[in-house]
Write a structure and sequence with these properties.
Blueprint (H helix, E strand, L loop, with lengths): L1 E6 L11 H11 L4 E4 L5 E5 L4 H10 L3 E4 L8 E2 L6 H4 L1 H11 L10 E4 L13 E6 L2 E6 L12 E7 L1 H18 L6 H8 L1 H10 L1
Parallel strand pairs: 5-6, 6-7
Antiparallel strand pairs: 1-3, 1-4, 2-3, 7-8, 8-9
Length: about 200
Amino acid sequence: MAKFAVTPGFSEGGTMFKPEQLVLLGSIIGDGSQVELTTFKQLYVEVQEDRMEEVKEKLQGIGLEIYPAGFVTKSLITCNFCRGAEDAGLHVAEELNKAIAGMETPSPLKIGYAGCALGTSEPLLKDIGIVKMKDAFDIYIGGDAKSLKPSFATLFLSNVSADKLISIVQGLVRYFQIHGKGKEKFSKFINRISLESLREAVSAA
């Protein structure tokens, strides 16, 4: 069996599957396949390996986005852009998602995006969290919700312009790719490397 991730993408209103997409998804993958609901707004679809490419193509044909499963950067986990597409930075979120989703990492990496300080996508509980603050962005790192002792992310950089945001986040992911240990959680990686070292590495990139 082969597994991959499926999302509807996101738009003003958030990440939402249309009912007809879910109906067609079931008919396309067929009997014997499995669908798993994840905590990062993706569906994991498991099908026979010899059908994977055919199924992917058909799902993309109904407007769904396909990403790898496993130890990769997950597709961007966003808010519902309730302040409107422009004010909440929908275009920036779309470009960021294209730039980072599916990058191989030592452990699965969740990146959250919030279009305002309300933070309804819970960016401070993600490995990397981006919060739009008027015309700039704050970047937080090291959130960890999956334990009996959850921890909030720490402010990494503030007042980051839109044109620098993607390169900084990519720099964080690449540094984790190179220096992270196998199956090491991002929060533990940060504690081992230190915030100062990460800031230096990203600013030098």
